[in-house]
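Side project, low priority. Logging it here so it doesn't get lost.
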Amino acid sequence: MIIAVDSLDDPRLADFAHRTDVALKNNGGNLYIAESALVLERALRAGHVPRAVLALGGSVDEAVSLVGPEVDVFSGPDEMLAELTGYVLHRGLIASLERPALLPVSSLLADSKRVVIIENVSDPTNVGAIFRSVAGIGADAVLVTPRCSDPYYRRAIRVSMGTVLQVPWTRTGEWPALKEELVASGFHIAALALTDDAVSLRDFAAGSHDRLALVLGAEGPGLTDEAIAAADTVVQIPMAHGIDSLNVAAAAAVAMWAVA
């Protein structure tokens, strides 16, 4: 149903009223925000349940065609919607959706050959870029550690072009329990880090690993000692011109391409 916004006090707009990602996550409904028709379409295709849509005039019909008449589609002047949300709707619409329940790690590992583990990456832009590479270059699932930024944060979803909603992912426990799960499923653990015993990615990729887990760490501190200790092999990307490392999202793309 299309609803014209004539008051920002309407309680039905609560999902959009200057809600931070953290506030949405902690909401009783456990929500996230999807921006643009493309991202909303991917969310719906993944089976996620929409609660409401906020759309500029030109995007109203598109929103209704995606969510159907049973979901409220709110529309109003640009300035009013920007005042409500705290930002301009450059992509025409945003939608609030319910977060699906996360699967256990063992469920994702069961049918996977290649997984990417993101340890403690705090920047949602990097998280989103890694997911986009996973979807585009190829891995079966993503595992994020307890202190990693939430892949359902608005910026992560936007940067990923909605692939966060397509790629199977879940949160892990801490090391070494995570290692035990990976070993039990037959995974070789390869950690990308700058250590004295690290092998070249070129040499590592020449080998054969039926099931492989690539572990990537946060910008700056890199992987924790626990992650490096859990690895079967520590791998580094050969660099030139005195540069020692790449941005974590770029490193993820290079590593996935090498071992594909």
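Brief comment: DSSP finds eleven helices and twelve strands in the chain.
Revisit when time allows.
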